Amino acid sequence: MSDFSKHILVTGGAGFIGSHVIRLLVHKYHDYHVINLDKLTYAGNLENLKDLEDAPNYTFVKGDITDAEFILELFRDHDITDVIHLAAESHVDRSILNPMEFIMTNVVGTVVLMNAAKAYWSGNWNGHRFYHVSTDEVYGSLGETGFFTEETSYDPHSPYSASKASSDHFVRAYHDTYGLPVVISNCSNNYGSHQFPEKLIPLFIHNITNNKPLPVYGDGKYTRDWLWVNDHARAIDVIFHAGKNGSTYNIGGFNEWQNIDLIKVLCKVMDTKLNREPGSSEKLITYVKDRPGHDLRYAIDSTKLKEELGWEPSLQFEEGLEKTVDWYLANETWLNNVTSGNYKAYYETQYAQR
Ligand code: NAD
Ligand code: DAU
Questions:
Q1: Which alpha helices (DSSP H) does the chain contain, by range?
Q2: Is the pLDDT of residue 346 over 80?
Q3: What span, in angstroms and rounded, lies between the C-alpha atoms of 171 and 183?
């Protein structure tokens, strides 16, 4: 008989958001056993969880969510009671270069996990939950005004968002058809520590530090709604425990920024932190060819999450951005380790023609 009240399988826990979710769960719930399943792709990094290596309620397992036999065995070996599913191919630009990997991991992998949950829990849904972590990109693009609500129709434009939209549909279908106890959340752009430097903020911090050009897509007037990653992890904790079965929750910061304005603020913070002459980082801004199918604007209405479950973001953007910059500057080894090897080949392909 196990001493733990739950055995939670967290997929993609060695990635950016997953590592924050795992840290929160392991520290906060000593009676939960947290099993981190991760394939350790280029985006997965066990250094992200080094501080938890010896925690008695944490186990790491290396594996692929598309491997059906292995996943079912994992459910049996660890008597999995719940799943928080974050594993994914998560970068829009890479999805444009190689869509098939996104279909495999994001769509097939999600269905494989649900099949294992359905088989292992075999209709006894009590005390079980399958939490699917998704994105606001499934809703497509907004014009100058308005917000995405949980009722907004799906309209994905990139292979990444199409794969996430497809996985969301499968999760709802498994709830409606088989009764699988699911919950879904759709979150806006996250920023914070441990994010792989292919996404805007860590990439630009890295390039400014190394005096490299800052490649702004198109006219830079695209708008994103930014949320501190720890606030996303807090929201996942709340929804996992109190979200309504079969429900969807939007998560966002009511914090919209045009890319170019955000980049200019980041440049100012970096000038200060690096003791550089004011304005020197901005000189690195270089307008490059636009991303194909680039969504103009995302903005999340997270009123439902606030009113039903009492969640609100905890941090102002300026404070979060400064904390984030501080972390990257203090963790240069982390950044250098993840930017060696395959990263270099990706960077050259992605930005060569721009
Ligand atoms: P990430 O790319 O940093 O991490 C993904 C993790 O999944 C990595 O550790 C990787 O090794 C693992 N993984 C990939 N393929 C796998 C496979 N086949 N089997 C097992 N593990 C595999 O991603 P992230 O930014 O932390 O995003 C996590 C989740 O949150 C994703 O589902 C993403 O769609 C969603 N999301 C991200 C954001 C954001 O701004 N980053 C916003 C909203 C939603
Ligand atoms: O909205 C949530 C989504 O946010 C998540 O689902 C994705 O996993 C996550 O990657 C993120 O997607 P984006 O495409 O919005 O993030 P990215 O950091 O790649 O780009 C943010 C904006 O900055 C976008 O408008 C494109 C622009 N950009 C990005 C890069 C990497 C540039 O102008 N130059 C760049 O070099």
A1: 16-28, 68-78, 92-97, 99-102, 109-121, 159-178, 200-209, 229-242, 259-273, 303-309, 317-330, 332-338, 342-352
A2: no
A3: 8
Please identify which of the residues 32, 58, 131, 160 carries the catalytic annotation. 160
For the Cβ of 48 lying below 6 angstroms from any atom of ligand 1, the answer is no
Nearest ligand 2 atom to the CA of 298 is 1
Closest residue CA from atom 33 of ligand 1: 90
Q: Is residue 116 part of a domain?
A: yes
Which atom, in ligand 2's list, is nearest to the CA of 201? 18
- Confirm whether 335 is domain-assigned: no
Q: What does pTM read for this prediction? A: 0.97
- Structural domain tally of the chain? 1
Instruction: Give SS3 for 250.
Output: strand
Whether 51 maps to a domain, the answer reads yes
CATH number for position 108: 3.40.50.720
Measuring CA to CA, how many Å separate 199 from each of 124, 203, 239? 41, 6, 26
**CA 140 remoteness from chain centre:** 17
Q: Structure tokens of 282?
A: 């901005």
pLDDT tens by residue, 131-178: 999 999 999 999 999 999 999 999 999 999 999 999 999 999 999 999
136 is catalytic: yes
Task: Give the 3-state secondary structure of residue 331.
Answer: coil
The verdict on residue 148 lying in a domain is yes
Q: Rounded CA gap, 62 and 14, in Å? A: 10
**How would you classify the pairing of strands 256-258 and 223-228?**
antiparallel
**Domain that includes residue 93, residue range:** 6-191+226-251
